UniProtKB/TrEMBL annotation:
Source organism (scientific name): Candidatus Uhrbacteria bacterium GW2011_GWE2_46_68
Every AAA+ ATPase domain range: 121-260
SMART domains hit by this protein: AAA
Entry-linked SUPFAM superfamilies: P-loop containing nucleoside triphosphate hydrolases, Winged helix' DNA-binding domain
Short name of one Pfam family: RuvB_N
Glycoprotein in keyword set: no
Keyword Cell inner membrane: no
Keyword terms of this UniProt record: ATP-binding, Cytoplasm, DNA damage, DNA recombination, DNA repair, DNA-binding, Helicase, Hydrolase, Nucleotide-binding
A GO MF label: ATP binding
Name this polypeptide is given: Holliday junction ATP-dependent DNA helicase RuvB
Renumbered residue ranges of the record's region Disordered: 379-398
GO BP terms: DNA recombination; DNA repair
Length: 398
């Protein structure tokens, strides 16, 4: 649920109608009061009544609407966070639960409120950045805040114009369409979709007397949210159809700590601060990797009937995952191969040595080695850098 959005929709119009000064500060104060009473906690929010809000300084009719909206928002979000996949259970359901992305969430919240008030679809959104930084999580949270159904697709499912046509004909006005790895769409498919995005017209071919005729039919007013690790593969006209573009940055150590603490709580165990720091240091500032470690630690906690995990448990877990000297097995093999080849080699050669696809090496192995200064990319291939104190440092805590 999102307390801020509910306050914006319920309380701001009331304050504006009474010519209240400093509305921003007032709304922030109401939000702080609601959080202090636990209204951001689903178990409390789902049972909130008008009398529970009597001390926050709003008239009874406004409090009644506010309490109802908070309950409704909480119950709407609850169904989207429970699933068989542990990663799904750890995924935030609303902006209140999404850690990081502060300024971007503010911009999105304004766009969402404007869209709800106008009864129109939002502008199309493009999220870029490395894997595991929360593009899908943000898309699901946007759909929740907008109160709209979301359809999950991948670029590979939309490889041909015919794929676009069959999908668009099943969409309804107001839907949010999330396309992960949108760069997997062909150029022809992109051209078909950007006509839908800008003109709300779907190009079709009709069989008429005398042959086939190119025409178009109305398309529903939807919001496209695209996610990609490689925006350069998108056509410039297609890119221009996205009114909101955002590149997700890596999380700070503090944000990773907040994510880890939340995940431990949801998984039902506690972890020593030093142990959590070890996992964060090996997670490459990536929440998905951190949660994978914590889910494995949860398996250990359950299988050993324990609810308190230690840094020693983490050390053993990292060893089982074949981490050594702060590096994964693939990262070590990559560096060893590069060293054996004289310190320089092509990407294809390295991928063959790792028995991996070239794109997988680029996206999963090289990023951390580049960020920590162990290798550099050049026109002649990959080159190993002379070791520095920071590149040799073995991560132990965040």
């Amino acid at each position: 649920m999102s307390l801020r959005r509910v306050l914006e929709e319920v309380v701001r119009p009331f304050l504006s109608s009474t010519n209240t000064s400093d509305i921003e500060a007032k709304i922030q104060g109401f939000e702080n009061s609601l959080r202090a009473m636990g209204a951001a906690v689903p178990s409390i929010a789902s049972q909130l009544e008008v009398d529970d809000l009597k001390d926050i300084g709003l008239p009874a009719p406004v409090r009644k609407v506010l309490a109802g909206k908070i309950r409704e928002d909480c119950l709407t979000g609850a169904s989207s966070v429970v699933g068989a996949d542990p990663h799904t259970n750890l995924r935030p359901a609303s902006f209140d639960q999404v850690i990081g992305h502060g300024p971007f969430k503010t911009l999105l919240l304004r766009a969402i409120i404007a869209s709800r008030q106008e009864g129109k679809a939002m502008r199309h959104i493009l999220l870029t950045g490395p894997r595991g930084l929360g593009k899908t999580t943000l898309a699901l949270a946007i759909a929740h805040e907008r109160g709209a159904p979301i359809r999950l697709l991948t670029g590979a499912q939309l490889a041909r114009p015919q794929d676009i046509t069959s999908q668009v004909l099943s969409w309804s006005a107001g839907d949010i369409i999330f396309i992960d790895e949108i760069h997997g769409m062909s150029k022809a498919a992109q051209e078909t979709l950007y006509s839908v995005m800008e003109d709300r017209r779907l190009p079709v071919t009709e069989q008429r007397r005398g042959g086939r005729v190119q025409t178009s039919v109305p398309a529903p007013d939807v919001t496209i949210i695209g996610a990609t690790t490689n925006p350069s593969k998108l056509l410039p006209p297609f890119l221009n159809r996205f009114g909101i573009k955002h590149q997700l940055a890596f999380y700070s150590k503090e944000e990773m700590g907040q994510i880890g603490q939340r995940s431990c709580r949801l998984l039902g165990f506690t972890l020593e601060e030093e142990g959590l720091g070890q996992l964060i240091a090996h997670s490459r500032d990536n929440p998905r990797t951190l949660n994978e470690f914590l889910i494995q630690l949860s398996d250990l906690a359950k299988s050993s009937s324990r609810d308190k995990m230690t840094s020693q448990d983490v050390t053993e877990l990292l060893a089982l995952n074949d981490y050594e000297g702060g590096l994964s097995r693939h990262e070590r093999t990559y560096l060893e191969t590069l060293h054996q080849l004289g310190g320089s080699a092509g990407l294809t050669t390295l991928a063959q040595a790792l028995d991996m696809e070239v794109t997988e090496v680029e996206q999963s192995v090289e990023p951390w080695l580049v960020r920590t200064g162990r290798i550099r990319k050049t026109a002649r291939g990959r080159q190993i850098n002379p070791p520095t104190p920071s590149s040799l440092e073995v991560p132990t805590h965040g």
